[in-house]
C-alpha cells in the first residue's frame, strides 16, 4: 500500500475544496458566530488553514508544546488566511514527498506521545477529563 501517495492525494483534494471556501471568506465578518456558543468565523477558518500544516509539523518536528510558545499567529484578513493556507499546504506536500513509509511508523516521537495521551484520557472516568 502506498500510504504516502494516498495522503498526498487526500490532502490535495481537501486543498481544492478548502481553497474555494477561503476565496469566499467574507471580509469584516471575523466575529460572526451563528450562536453564542459557536466558534467565531475567523477562528474556525484559521483552524482549518492550520490543519494543512499538520503533516509537515508531524514529519519534521519532535513535538508541540503550547506552554513553550508553540501558538498560532492570529489572522485578521482573508489574504492572511490564504497565505498561511498556501504555505501550510506546500510545506506538507513537500514533507510527504520527502517521507518514506517508515517515517509513518511510531518511533517514540510526539505523535506516539499524543496517541498515548489520548488513550490514557479515554480510560479516565468522564468526570476526570
| Tertiary shape | globular
How large is the radius of gyration?
17 Å
Oligomeric state of the chains in view? single chain
Roughly how many Å apart are the termini? Answer: 37 Å
Low-confidence region ranges = 121-129
How helix-rich are the residues, as a percent range? 55-70%
Order of helices and strands: HHHHH
Q: Mean pLDDT, as a whole number?
A: 82
Number of continuous helical runs: 5
The major β-sheet equals: none
Percentage beta strand? under 5%
For the secondary structure, the number of strands is: 0
Structural class computed from helices and strand pairing: mainly alpha
Can you describe this structure in just a few lines?
The protein is built from five helices and no strands. It is mostly helical and 129 residues long.
Task: Describe what you observe in this structure.
This protein is mainly α and 129 residues long. The protein has five helices and no strands. The N and C termini lie far apart (37 Å). α2 runs parallel beside α4 (78-98).
Features:
globular; 5 helices; 129 residues; mainly alpha
Give the topology, please.
Blueprint: H1 3-23, H2 41-51, H3 54-60, H4 78-98, H5 110-123
